[in-house]
Amino acid sequence: MLGSESFGEQITLPITMVTVLDTTHFNYYYEVMESFETSCYITLADRQTQTLAVTGQIIELARVWDWQAKQYMIFVLTADRYVWVKESVIHNDHIRQTTFEETKPVDEQSEVQLQADVLPVDEVKPVSILDKPWITRKIDMHFEDSHFISLIRQNGMTNLITDDGQTRHISEVPQGVSKQLIYANGRNWATYDHFVFVAVGRLSPEKNQTMLLDAFAKVYQQHPEAELIIVGDGVIRSDLENQAVQLGIADVVLFTGQVDNPADYLAVADVFVHPSLYEGQPMVLLEAMMQHRLIVATNIAANVGVLGNQTYGLLTQDVTTNAFVMQMLFTMEQQTNIKEFDIAHYQNSAKLAFYNIIK
Q1: CA–CA separation, 297 vs 346, rounded Å?
Q2: Angle formed at CA 50 by CA 44 and CA 54, multiple of 5 degrees
Q3: Residue 352 is inside which H or E element, if any?
Q4: Radius of gyration of the chain (CA)
Q5: Could you state, in order of their start, the residue ranges of all structural domains in the chain?
Q6: From CA 39, how far away is CA 37, in angstroms rounded?
Q7: What helix, strand, coil percent values describe the chain, rounded to 5?
Q8: 162 closest CA partner among 144, 188, 174, 186
Q9: Residues 148 and 308 sit within 8 Å (Cβ to Cβ)
Q10: How many Å apart are CA 250 and CA 261, to the nearest integer?
C-alpha cells in the first residue's frame, strides 16, 4: 500500500511495480578512457533497446532499481543523449569515476573549483516599498514589561513584535535582554540586534563553505552587526574553522556541528545562504522556504530549479565570492518582490517531472 497525504492519493501495488528515483549520485562524472558500445533505453516503460556509442564522458542524473533485471538502471547524459543504461556500464574497465568535473575554473579568492552547471538569471531589481515583510525571524527578548518574539524588516525599518501582537521600532528598545535561543562559545547568538545568516549542510568542498566564509568576511567589514551560523559537520570543518580565524571573523561565525534540530536554526535566520557548487535535490532550500526564510543561493541548475528565476529567493549571477557578497549585501541594504512559496504547486510540478522521467 502506497499513500501520499500531500497528494491525497492511495494505491495498492505489487512491490515489483514500485519505482523509487534515487538522485544521491546526481551529477557524478565518469570519464570514458576508451570508446565502446552498449545497449540503452530511451524510456524504461517500452524497453526498446538501442545501441549507444559511449565516448567522452558520462554524467549520471538519477537511478532506479530494476525489479526485472535485479540491478540498478541509471539515467545518464552521454554523447549528447539522455538515456537509461545498466549500472554495470559505469563499472566498465574503460570508465574512470571523477565525481567532480576536473576542468573547472577556480575562484581566485577561495581557490575552490567552480561547478559549470550554472544557469543565466535576471538581475535583482530593488523596490522602495513592499506591502509585506521583507524579512521575518524569531527572537526571544524582554524589555520593561514586554516580551518580544519576532522581528520584521520592511521598507528600511526593523520592528519588533510582542507576544500579544504589539509592534515597536527597534530604536525604542535600546537595551533589551535576549534569552538563550542559541548559546555557544560563551555568548548568545541571533539576538535581536544582529543580522543573522544561516547555512545548513555537510561541510565538504562541493558545498562551497570556503567561498561563503570569504564572502561573509567582506560583508562583515561593512556590517559589523552581521553573524554567520553554519550548521553541519564534515571533512573540511577544521579547515573552515582555521579559515575563519585567518579572516578575522572567528568571533562572529558559529560552527554548530551536527544537530538534531536544524529547523531551530532556520527559525532565527534573517537570511538562509546556500553557496553550493552542485546539488542533487536541494531539500534544505525547500525547508527554508517552508519556514518563509529569505534565501540567497548560487545560480546552479538545481537551485534555480527550486527557486525559479529570482522568484522564491535571490540567486547570484555566478558562483564567485563577489557575486555572493553582492546578494548578501542586497538583503541587508535593499529589498525586492519575492513570491510566497506554494508547496502544493511545487509538489504537482515535481510529480509531473518524475512521471515524465519514468514514462
Answers
A1: 18
A2: 105
A3: helix 343-358
A4: 23
A5: 2-99, 181-347
A6: 7
A7: 25, 35, 40
A8: 144
A9: no
A10: 23
Distance CA 227, CA 216 (A): 9
Task: Report residue 32 as a C-alpha cell.
Answer: 570514458
CB 137 within 8 A of CB 263: no
pTM for the structure as a whole: 0.69
Which residue shows C-alpha cell 575552490?
Answer: 112
Contact 349, 312 (CB under 8 A): no
What are residue 253's DSSP bridge partners? 228
Return phi, psi of residue 329, to 5°: -65, -35
Q: In what order do the strands lie in the sheet with 57-66?
A: 49-54, 36-41, 81-86, 71-78, 57-66, 28-32, 95-97
- Largest distance between two CA atoms of the chain: 76
Encode pLDDT of 117-149 as tens digits.
Answer: 789 999 999 999 999 999 999 999 999 999 999
**88-120 residue pLDDT tens:** 898 888 888 764 443 454 554 556 555 547 899
CATH class of the structural domain 181-347:
alpha beta
As a whole number of angstroms, the distance between CA 347 and CA 38 comes to 35
Amino acid at position 317, single letter: Q
End-to-end CA distance of the chain: 21
